[in-house]
Amino acid sequence: MTVPPAQAGNATVTAAGSGTDAPEDPGGRTTFVPHGFLARAAFVTVVLSLAGALLGLGRDQALAHLFGAGSETDAFLVAWTVPEFAATLLIEDGLAFALVPAFSAAVARRAHGGTGDAGDPVRALVRGTLPRLTLAFTVTSALIIWGAPYLVEVLAPGLPDPRLAVDCTRLTGTCVLTFGLAGYCSAALRAHRRFVAPAAIYVAYNTAVITAMFVLGGRWGVRAAAIGVAVGGLLMILTQLPSFLRKLVRRPADLGATPTDAPNATGPAAPEDPADLKDPAADRRAVNLALFGTVLLFALCRQSQVLIERFLAAPLPAGTISHLNYAQKVAQLPMVLALMLCTVTFPVVSQALAEGDTERARDRVERDLRAVSYVVLLGTAAVVACAPQLIQLLFQRGAFTAQDTAATAAVMRVYALGLLGQALVGALVRSYFSAGRATWYPVAAMTAGIAATAGAGAWAVGSWGVLGIAAANAAGISLTALILLYGMGTRGVPIRTRRVLAAMGRPLRAAVVACGVGWFGASLVGSSTLGLTAGGTAVTVVFLVLAGMPGGQGFTPTIRTLTRRLPHARFR
C-alpha cells in the first residue's frame, strides 16, 4: 500500500573504500569487507531515498496547496491507484522478488566463465525475459487506458466527478509500461550490486510530478499531476538505462565475486555444479511462470488494501480519500527508511541460499528484522506523538484547511498502529522469495490479512467512519505479519522466531513510553514547529535511552557500523 520514495551511476564499494568498483585479485576474484559494503550501499540508498522521500512530501504538499482535499483531489487519487499498484508490483516487491534472485544467479554464472554473446548468462536472461515482459506491460497499459471508465466505476462508485478521474487514469495508465521497464532495470542493477541508479528513480519521478503541477496546473488543473506521473515514469527508465546497458557488456571488473556476509570473504563459494553455472538456458528457466505468479499475486493482494480503503471511503464526505492518502504518505516514511537495509541485503540473502549457506542467510535476516523493528518503532512513536504538528507544518496552507489537518492527523495516528506490521511484512516476504522458488504461503498470509481488513473495515466504517478504515488496515497487515513470522521456520529462511520476537520487546516497550512523553511535550507548545521539535526530541531521547541501553540488539550495532564506515565511502 505504498509508493515508497526510494532507489546514474554505479555504486559498489571496495574493501579499502578507495573507489566504487571492487578490485580483482590475481585469481579473478574480488575481495570485500562485507560489513563495509553493506554499510556504504545502505548509505547510498538512504541518501537518495531520503531525497526521493522529501520530494515525495513536496509532491503531496504541492497537491494539497494547489488542489486542497476536496472532490478534485479525490478524483486524482483514484487515478493514483494505478501508479501505486504499478510501483508495488513492478518496482518494489513483485518483479524484484522474481528477478533479483534470477539475475544474482546469472551474475554468478557469468563470473564462472560464460563467454561470448551466446554464452553470457546475463544476456541470455535478458533475451529470454525482457521482450515478453515488455509486451505484457504494453498490453496492460493499453487495457487500462481503454477501460479507464470501467476501472473508475469499480474503484470508487459514487465519486462526485468520475470524468475527471477517468482522464487522470488514462494518463497514469502509461506507468504500467514505464514502471515495469524501470523495475526490470532496478532488479538487474541491484543483482550487480549497483544501487545508485535504482535509488535515484524516485528523485526523478517526483521532480517530474511537482514540476508538472506547478507549470501546467493553472491550465489543466489536477490533470497536470497525472501528466507528471506519465513523464516521471519515462525519467525512471532514463535514470537507469546507461548503467543497465553497461552491465550487458561483459567487462573484467564484472567478473569478480559478489559480496558475502562471511567475515573476510574472498569471492563466492564454489558452485556445486559448475556445468549448470555455464548453461545459459538455466537463466531462462530461473524466471518461471509459477514464481512470477506467486510474487505478483502477493504484491497484488498487498496493494489491494488501497482498493478496499478507497472503496469504503468513496461514499463518505468529500475529502475523506485525500485525508487517508496524506496520512498514509507521512506515516509510511519510517517504514520506508526501515526497509532500505533489506533492499540492500536482499541479493546477499539470495546468494547465501543459492550457495547452500542457510546459517549465513538466517543471521542476515535476523539482524535485518532487529534493525527494522528499532527504526520503525522509533518512527511510529514520533508519528503518533506529533501527528497534528506534523500535518499542520507540512500541509496546512492554501486550500488545505485546519479542519483537514485535524482529520488527517487523527487518521494518521490510527494508521500508524500498523506500521510495525507493514515493515515486518516487507522484510519477511523478501526472505520467502530470496531462494528464487515459487511459494504460495506469502500469498495465503496476505489473503488472510486482506480478508481481515475488508471485513473489519466494512463493519467499522459505519460507526467510526474513516478512523474505522484506518484501524482495519492496521489490524489486517499485523495479522499478515504474524502469519509470515509463524511460517518462517519451515517455508522461508529458518530464523529463530522466539529470539527475534524477544529482541523486539525492548524497542516496543520503549516506543510506548516515548510516545506518551512526546505527546505530552508536543501538546505543551502552541506553535507547530516548536511543538514538533519538543515532541520529536522527547520521543528520540526517551526511545534511545530505553531501547539503546547496553545489551540492546539491532539499532545500536547498526548505527555503530554505519558511523564507522561512512567516512570512507566514495561514489561516482
TrEMBL record:
Bilayer topology: Multi-pass membrane protein
TM regions (residue ranges): 37-57, 133-151, 171-189, 196-216, 222-241, 286-308, 333-354, 374-395, 415-433, 440-460, 466-487, 508-526, 532-555
Main subcellular localisation: membrane
Keywords: Cell membrane, Cell shape, Membrane, Peptidoglycan synthesis, Transmembrane, Transmembrane helix
Domain of life assignment: Bacteria
Location in or out of the cell: Cell membrane
Region (Disordered) residue spans: 1-28, 256-277
Protein name, entry field: Murein biosynthesis protein MurJ
